[in-house]
Every structure is written in structure tokens, then in C-alpha cells.
TrEMBL record:
CDD domains found in the cross-reference section: YjgF_YER057c_UK114_like_1
Highest classification ranks of the organism: Bacteria, Pseudomonadati, Pseudomonadota, Alphaproteobacteria, Hyphomicrobiales
Domain Endoribonuclease L-PSP/chorismate mutase-like: 6-143
Family annotation (InterPro entries): Endoribo_LPSP/chorism_mut-like, RutC-like_sf
Name the record gives this protein: Endoribonuclease L-PSP/chorismate mutase-like domain-containing protein
One Pfam family this sequence matches: YjgF_endoribonc
Protein species of origin: Mesorhizobium hungaricum
SUPFAM superfamilies reported in the protein's UniProt record: YjgF-like
Length: 154
């Protein structure tokens, strides 16, 4: 992939938003050596949640995947705010995907694919990562998905 990350985002019709400010007493990202860790990112588009509620009750898997995609977009927005240039990303090391779901919902991994697919499409091999997908009783603001990431950076 010789093209830039910004060009791939553009080809996918994605414009990175301004990085979201923290909603409480924490920082949106922290850097330690060559690692960049993001705070959990919600599925915000134009400052609003793309969906609300629980998977398995209020939200279907396709909508959950779309929400996870927007969490990944917001992870990239935080990376750009931290680094100034997305080309400084060496790779996504790991993402942790929290899926607000009913107790009997067991497709968290399918929801998480929304983020994994986007990161691979945008970053190529640098976007392939380890991952955990975890069910949760609820998430902030009634979001269906929240994702945090660990990136290796220059």
C-alpha cells in the first residue's frame, strides 16, 4: 500500500472528526515510549451517538458493527491528535471492544469486526491487531459499543 492513510480514509468516504474531549477526569490518550494508548472511544458521528441501547434487544449486529466502525474512526482521530500525522502509526497492537448487550447475546466478536475491518482497510497490515471483545451490562451514554486501543508509534 503505497498511498497514504489519509488518502485511504478519503477513498472510504471518511473524514476524521476533531478528537473528542474527555467527558470526565481522564486524558483522551497517553503515550509511554513508543506506545500510544487511547481512552475508550464511543461511536460518535458529528458529535452524536450513531446508535444507543443493548445488542440483543435494541440494536442488531449490523448496527453494532457500524457503531464499532465509528469507534475505530474516533481512535484514529485521537491518534492524529496525539501524533499530528497518522503516518507515525507503526501498527495497531490491540483493541479491546466493549459491547453493551443482553446476557444471552453471544456475538460480540461479530460486532467487533466493524472496527477490525475498518482498521485493516485503512492501515493495511499495520491495522491487523490482537483483540478482545467483551460483553458489558451497559456503557456510558447508553452507547452500544466502546473501544480502546494500543498503538505502536514512531
Amino acid at each position: 500500500m503505497g498511498e497514504t492513510i489519509e488518502k485511504r480514509l478519503s477513498e472510504l468516504g471518511i473524514t476524521l472528526p476533531a478528537a473528542a474531549a474527555p467527558a470526565a477526569n481522564y486524558v483522551p490518550f497517553a503515550r509511554s515510549g513508543n506506545l500510544l494508548l487511547t481512552a475508550g472511544q464511543l461511536p460518535l458521528k458529528d458529535g452524536k451517538l450513531v446508535a444507543t441501547g443493548l445488542l440483543g434487544r435494541d440494536v442488531d449486529v449490523a448496527t453494532g458493527k457500524e457503531a464499532a466502525k465509528y469507534c475505530a474512526v474516533n481512535i484514529l482521530a485521537q491518534a492524529k491528535a496525539a501524533l499530528g500525522d497518522l503516518e507515525k502509526i507503526r501498527r495497531i497492537v490491540k483493541i479491546t471492544v466493549f459491547v453493551a448487550s443482553t446476557p444471552d447475546f453471544v456475538e460480540q466478536h461479530l460486532v467487533a469486526n466493524g472496527a477490525s475491518d475498518l482498521l485493516a482497510a485503512v492501515l493495511g497490515d499495520k491495522g491487523k491487531h490482537a483483540r478482545s471483545a467483551v460483553g458489558s451490562a451497559s456503557l456510558p451514554l447508553n452507547a452500544p459499543v466502546e473501544i480502546e486501543a494500543i498503538l505502536e508509534v514512531e
